[in-house]
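Question (not urgent): is this output format expected?
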Amino acid sequence: MLHFSRLLLLWALLPAGSVVAQQPAPSAAASKAAAAPTEAEVLRRATQLIQNRQYESAWKLLNGFDPKHRRPAVALKQTDLALNYHLRSRELEGFGFVDVKPLERLDSLREHFTRAAVPYPFVVETVLKNLIRQHPTTYRLHRALADYYYQTEQCNCAEADKSPAQLYALMVRYYATAHQHGLGDFSSYFALGYARQSLRQFAESVPAYTRAIALRPSYAPAHFQLAYSYTVLQKLPLALQEARAAARYFDDPTAKSDATYLAENLEKKIAQAAKAKKKQVNKKK
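Got this back:
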């Protein structure tokens, strides 16, 4: 410790008019800003929570960071969480979540908590369409909206004001945009093929299913649906080839049986067509 007289000496040596500067204490706002997480940190933490099946905690984190759904990356993470990991949903416009315990399964919890609360509003279609208007070149939003329409059509649990044909047309629109900008995978190309096929655009469904198979050769549903399109288009040898592939790749016994049945019928049709052609040739002789 400095002696008192030495302190006086040091003070006397300071230049005239000088003062000892005192650092101001940081304000509460500055401290809060310094402690606020970045978007990347929030998304990283949310991903970790989802991997640990802490779905409600992940939702609270994301919603607290962006309560007005103005950030595309955060809204996309929320959309994935809402559509795939909810405990309960109200027409895909409100959701309930749960933090799953180690020995619990989400699908089992869904069966038991059919009347669970739906405390978190999140109108998926509205959120994504608003963001597309604000960020038209963020094409992941287009892909997410297409996936939403596909899931809606499959579950028949939302968008009651839209006919199936309208949903198929929306799927085609948004998947096409996403694919044009490199945001396609086997599942999105399959869904596009399904939408085209459902609109009876069988020829247009073929490239989509073919692309899905190129990206995942063992994806049995794509082989099966492509076989159906080829059958309608009267390309029976190609249909038979795809039906056999579907029967080979399906694990589900019922689906495998359906594909085998289709292949057998196609074999009969091809044999009958060959027989009829041969008979016609003989008549000409």
